[in-house]
Amino acid sequence: MRSILLAALLAAGGAGLAWGDTNPQTSPAYCGGCHTRIYKEWQSSTMAKDINNPVVYQFYTGTNGKGEKDGLGFQGMHPGEAGDCADCHVPQLVLDEAAKGKAVDLGVAMKEKLDHGISCNFCHTVSDVHIRQDAQGRFDTRITHTVTQDKSGAKLGPFKDAKSPAHPTRYSALHRDSKLCAICHLNQEKFLSMSTYKDWLDAYQAGKTRQTCQGCHMPLHEEPVELAVGGPKREGVRAHTFVGAHDPEMLAKALSLDVQTRVAGDELVITTTVKNVGAGHKVPGAGPIRNVILKIDAIDSDGKPLPYVGDKKGLLPPLAGMGNPKTKKRDAQDWAGMPGKMYAKVYKTKVIPKLGRAMVGVGGFAAQELAFDTCLKPQQSDTTTYRFKLPKGSDKVQVKARLVYRWAFKPLADRKGWKLEDRPMREVTREVQVAAR
């Protein structure tokens, strides 16, 4: 019976053979032969799509969508080096090759399909995660130092009575522990550029959140469901969808936005308060090219923008989009110089001789200095005031404040040719009555 089942699983997971993997049983498609629902959930996630993500490939290899070298990316700034990018994008391959004394070039691994990426087999063979800091507080985050794997062939999970005719099983409390996510969501370079796990841990220990990473990013199935086809239906099963900033509901509940308006003489004063009410880590989280933008629009009854007369600190920085530097043309997403605020962790490089200046808004691999960090910690609020000149002869003005999430800085996306959408988080509209002037 066992041999028949394994034959069926091999047939179901046959697609995994295309990856040049000598063991098809490590393919997610193989796991999907029995764990059908879980496999479909995983397929829908960014975890599954990561290995084929052109943005990841281009940012690592320092190329654009045409395959041309543009210098913007890890290998563009560290030519000839492998770095540690592969640790999180093809973790099993890194561990296997490290055992042979070899490093992994992520670009080669992605192009030649040498691994299954962030796969079922990798996550469910991790038996321990080691989080270490030195006397200076720096973390050792190389995956070869942080991860211990179970090499017995068993698959590890959070149910004590789980059994399978296809493989041995082992109970693992780690798989309900946020520490499992620290494998990739903690990355020490010159700075702790990927600090999500530490940000969560600080908040958790301070009582600012009671959720684990899994509690938010692996939603609980409301009804009992099977772990595998034909198995018992269980309560307390979490979906392998790994929802995050790609999910509109997650974005909508992360931040709150309060807008207050008042008239002071011939000025309209707008006060906004943005608060991290729903995320157990800083917003934005993940890598240092992520950003959240608060954009403020104030228009008169004719639809014309009111002149901004407030502090220059109330204007969005160049990373919000400056348009084409050669033609000076701007598109609808180029918001630099407009009223608002950017929430982000922004690094800059050392001075680049060819440019005569430092580059700002780079990945952690190029960071030499922290330019600013306005990310919002759990339960932290930020209040900002904006002032506009009121028009004469108008009895009302309209105010619109909106929060949007961008997964990359606009100038970087422009240079790379990436399509950048503004993912809505919150929006507040107010109509302000103004005495005729």
Overall description:
The model is unreliable at 1-22 (pLDDT under 50). It contains 15 helices and 17 strands. Strand 5 and strand 6 (192-194) form a beta hairpin. It has helices spanning 2-12, 28-31, 36-43, 46-49, 54-61, 74-77, 86-89, 91-98, 106-111, 120-123, 143-146, 196-205, 213-217, 248-254, 410-416, and strands at residues 126-129, 147-149, 155-157, 169-171, 187-188, 192-194, 225-226, 233-234, 255-264, 267-276, 291-299, 340-343, 345-348, 369-373, 381-389, 396-406, 423-433. The protein is globular and about 80 Å long. It is of the alpha+beta class and 437 residues long. The strands form 7 sheets. A 4-stranded antiparallel beta sheet has the order 12-11-16-17. A 3-stranded antiparallel beta sheet has the order 9-10-15. It has a two-stranded antiparallel ribbon with strand order 1-2.
Task: Give a quick set of tags describing it.
alpha+beta, 15 helices, 3-stranded antiparallel beta sheet, globular, 4-stranded antiparallel beta sheet, 437 residues, 17 strands, disordered N terminus
The N- to C-terminal Cα distance equals: 87 Å
| Count, helices | 15
Query: Numbering strands along the chain, what is their spatial order in the largest sheet?
Result: 12-11-16-17
Question: Could you tell me the mean pLDDT?
Answer: 93
Strand content: 15-25%
The coarse silhouette is globular
Radius of gyration: 25 Å
Query: What level of helicity do the residues show?
Result: 10-25%
* Count of individual beta strands: 17
The largest β sheet comes out as: 4 strands, antiparallel
Unreliable segments of 5+ consecutive residues: 1-22
Structural class comes to alpha+beta
